[in-house]
Specification:
Order of helices and strands: HHHH
Number of helices: 4
Largest sheet: none
Radius of gyration: 16 Å
Pfam families: 23S_rRNA_IVP
Distance between the termini: 20 Å
Organism: Pedobacter lithocola
Protein name: Four helix bundle protein
Structural class: mainly alpha
InterPro entries: 23S_rRNA-intervening_sequence, 23S_rRNA_IVS_sf
Number of strands: 0
Shape: elongated
């Protein structure tokens, strides 16, 4: 079932989000190195990583499962960025574009999962 990753818009957008998260967290205070910096970066990296792992799997069902994990990581990242904003570590001008990227990715993931569900259900018929 191998998918070409560079042709998956959702993967490319999640890579771009991850790069943006790395850039924005670089300005966080150093005492957050093992806190919000590490957790935000880990959650961000998890999104394209799980999309990639799912794309390399042998079935639509497995791919769908990994998309679910990627989506969970996007909600985790969203939460961490909002916390950083409330702690005044991340300004709203930097937060909002990231939240927009995350929202777009979540919608794309949901749509992708719906499409895969249809393919999974059609195979059962």
């Amino acid at each position: 079932m191998m998918n070409k990753l560079n042709e998956l818009k959702i993967w490319t957008k999640s890579i771009n989000l991850t790069v943006d998260v790395y850039k924005v967290t670089a300005s966080f205070p150093s005492d957050e190195r093992f806190g919000l910096i590490s957790q935000s970066r880990r959650a961000a990296v998890s999104i394209p990583s799980n999309i990639a792992e799912g794309a390399g799997r042998n079935s639509f069902k497995e791919f769908n499962n990994f998309l679910g994990i990627a989506n969970g990581s996007s909600y985790e990242l969203q939460t961490q960025l909002v916390i950083a904003n409330k702690l005044e570590i991340l300004d709203t001008e930097s937060l909002n574009p990231l939240l927009m990227q995350i929202d777009e990715l979540q919608k794309m993931t949901y749509g992708f999962q719906q499409m895969l569900e249809k393919k999974i259900n059609n195979k059962k018929m």
